[in-house]
Amino acid sequence: MPIPVIESQTKNSVSSSDTLTALIPAGVVADDILIVVTGFRSSSGGITISMNEAGWNKVGQAGSQSPDAYVGVFWKRATGGDGNALITFSTSTINPACHMIRVSGCHSTEDPVNAFAFDEEGPNNPQSTSSVTTTEKKCLIIAGSSHDGADCLPVTYYSPYTLGDEQVSSTDTGVTWGWRELPQIAGSGQAVIATSGTDGASLFTIALKPDPIRALSDYISNVYQQGLWVPFIQNSPSGSPTANNKGGWARIGNQVTCYGYIDWTGYSESNETEIEFGGLPFTVAEILGLGDTFSLFGGVLNPHHGMQMNLIGASSAIHQMTVFPIELTRYFKLMSYLGTNDATQPDTRYFNRFKNFSSEFAFGFTLNYLTEDP
Question: What pLDDT score does 349 carry?
Fold first, then answer.
C-alpha cells in the first residue's frame, strides 16, 4: 500500500466576510480525499468555523483572542461530481483565507484521519506544530498554520516537511500548510515554520492513512519477469563469506520471490546476534511472511526448512534462526537465538553457540514480499 499523494490544491481569500469559498482543485475523482484548511486573524474569542455543504467532516479547530489567530480543518470523500465548498464563520469582522487540497490513495472505506493535533502559540519565530503518533504505516502528514498578520508570510518549512502553499488576506491573515511522508508507525515530529514576522499563530497536524485495498492488478498481472541477483554481506558477519553467493528472482505484478544461497569458508567465534544482507533486486514495500524458507547445508546437520529453524546443539540448547526482508530497503536479515534450556549460557543470542556448524557451510533461503518499484 503506497503513501497517500497530494495531487493538486487551490487557495482563496476574502475581506470582511462571514463566508469564504474554498475552490475545488483540478482532477478530482471519486474517493479522493479533499482537505480544507482555513484561518483568520481575530482578537475575539468563541468564533466557530463550519462547512455549509453536506459531506464535510470537521477534524477540529484552534484559536482564541490569545494568539489572535484561528485555524480550522475539514475533510470530505469526493464523489466525482464535487464543486466549490462554502466555509462559514460565526462573525463577519474577519479577513479569512483558505486552501483546498486534493489527496489520492487514502483509506477508501474508513475515516482517513489517523491522528491529529491542534494548538496555539504566542508571538514566536519559528512556530512549531504538535507532533502526532500514527497507528498505521505509510501515512501522509499535513501540518499548517494561521498567523496573526500577513506580515508573517512568506514562511519556510524545515525538513523533513515541505511547504505546500501559503495565502494572505488583506494585511490581517496568513494561512500556510506543508507536508511530509511517514513510512513507519512513529511520531510525525513537529513542523517547524520559520516566519517573516513574529506574531501569534494557531496550528494543526493531521495524519492521513493509506488505503489497504489494492486492485488485483497490483498483485497479479500478465507480466512475468525473472532474473539473477547476488546476495552480499551488509554488516560484519561471523566468519568469512566467499564470492560464490548466487541468487535468482521471479516477479508477477508487485509480488516478488527471491531465492539464493550464501557460502562461508570459515566460521568465527564473534558474538553476532544478526547478520544483514543486501542485494535484493527490488525495494521491500511489505513483508508477506508466507512461503519464506531457510536451509542449512554443508554442516553435520541435515537441512531444515521453514521461516524459523530449530537446531539442537552440543549443549542440548534449542537454537532458533529466522530470516526476513527489511521493509523500505533492499536488505534482509538472518537472526539467531539460543533457547532457555541451555544450562551454561541461557538466552544467549550468539551465532557461535551453533556448535554443530562445520568450518565450511552455506545456507539457502527463499523470501516473498511486495514491492512498489516499477
Answer: 40
Q: What's the whole-number mean pLDDT along residues 227-231?
A: 90
For residues 338 and 317, is the Cβ–Cβ distance under 8 A?
A: yes
pLDDT at 141 over 90: yes
Separation CA 181–CA 265 (nearest Å)? 43
pLDDT digits (tens, 9 = 90+) for 32-43: 999 999 999 988
For the record, the C-alpha cell of 120 comes out as: 496555539
In tens, the pLDDT along 242-273 reads 677 889 999 988 889 999 888 766 555 444 55
Cis peptide before 325 (omega within 30 of 0): no
Handedness of CA 218, 221, 225, 226 (dihedral sign): positive
Which of 154-158, 257-261, 294-298 holds the top average pLDDT? Answer: 154-158
Residue 323's Cβ-count burial label (10 Å; 0-12, 13-18, 19+) is buried
Q: What is the pTM of this model?
A: 0.67
